[in-house]
Amino acid sequence: MPHKIIRYNPKLKGIARTLRNNSTIGEILLWKRLRNKQMLGYDFHRQKPIDEFVVDFFCPKLMLAIEIDGGSHENDEAHDKDKKRQSRLESLGITFLRFKESDVRSDIRSVVDVIEDWIRRNTK
């Protein structure tokens, strides 16, 4: 089954490249578990431009975005911006899973378990 094509602002390609080259420890740890179809055979992309935004990880077949929120996401302004961004992308049919950077760093196994559980529940 072909996945839905979602357009993106081409200006985001450079931003996505910069983000890939400056990944957080949590992003690096999770990418090691997502890359090369290791996550139950699904293809994930990192720092993927979608619409007017860049998401940390995205699986087009599942329409699943995974975000890792570090300290910069903890103030009210950033939280409101994240909510609006997520709402816009959800309106395009994308589901979000969000994790704290500290949780990814301290317990990657639990993060992977949550993602695997979501995939199993949503692909029956």
Throw out a few tags for this protein:
124 residues; alpha+beta; Endonuclease, Chain A; four-stranded mixed beta sheet; 4 strands; 20% strand; globular
Break the fold down into its secondary structure elements and pairings.
Elements lengths: L11 H10 L3 H10 L10 E6 L2 E7 L4 E6 L6 H15 L4 E6 H6 L1 H15 L2
Parallel strand pairs: 3-4
Antiparallel strand pairs: 1-2, 2-3
Mean pLDDT: 91
Which sequence of strands runs across the widest sheet? Answer: 1-2-3-4
Biggest sheet: strands, sense, closure? Answer: 4 strands, mixed
> What is the succession of H and E elements?
HHEEEHEHH
Corresponding CATH architecture:
3-Layer(aba) Sandwich
- The helix count comes to 5
CATH topology: Endonuclease, Chain A
Query: Can you tell me the CATH class?
Result: Alpha Beta
Shape estimate? globular
Total domain count: 1
Name the structural class.
alpha+beta
Brief rundown of the structure:
This protein is α+β, with helices and mostly antiparallel strands. The chain has helices at 12-21, 25-34, 76-90, 101-106, 108-122; strands at 45-50, 53-59, 64-69, 95-100.
Structure commentary:
The protein has one domain (12-122): 3-Layer(aba) Sandwich (Endonuclease, Chain A), CATH 3.40.960.10. The protein has five helices and four strands; from the N terminus they run H-H-E-E-E-H-E-H-H. It has helices spanning 12-21, 25-34, 76-90, 101-106, 108-122, and strands at 45-50, 53-59, 64-69, 95-100. The longest helix is centred in the last third of the chain and has 15 residues, at 76-90. The model has no long low-confidence stretch (mean pLDDT 91).
